[in-house]
Design a protein that fits this description.
Blueprint: H1 2-31, H2 35-41, H3 80-85, H4 91-99, H5 101-104, H6 117-128
Helix pairs in contact: 2-6, 4-6
The structure holds heme C.
Length: 139
Amino acid sequence: MSKIMSYVIPGLALAAAIGASTAAILSKAEAAGNAAAGEQVFSRCMVCHSTKAGENKIGPSLAGVVGRKSGSVPGYDYSPALKAAGIIWDEQELDKYLTNPPADVHGTKMVISVPSAEDRQNVIAYLMTLKDDHTTGAR
Ligand code: HEC
């Protein structure tokens, strides 16, 4: 018994040390927007948005959305409001829209918001990884 314990205890101490340093690294990265954490936030968007180019659901595909003009996905039936908005989706514009879409673009069809600033930063970091050709294999 005591022999087993002498193996288990150093193992636990090591696990605790690894856990602590991972947490420190993660919290540091999250401050600037963490794509991995953002992928979790994106689970709230997936009912309506695909990350595949050309696949529109209730909302337009978000493949390559960062840097794209608002209301510009071919074949998606946007609200007249978003079509006319003429926004280029960069970090600031996405942050503003996701805070409260109808307040940012009056008449937009998207009504869900992301109230937490940290969640917004993270999900925007995730959106930045969604290049248009990322999932189509057309590289
Ligand atoms: C209940 C459905 C729904 C959910 C959930 C949803 N959206 Fe939307 N989203 C829409 C619709 C519908 C539009 C089109 C709005 C319009 O035409 O006015 C849209 C548009 C957008 C646009 C503009 C795209 C473009 O091509 O101009 C972005 C960016 C966006 N959504 C991001 C998100 C993110 C990020 C989430 C998750 C946090 C999310 N949406 C969750 C329905 C949804």
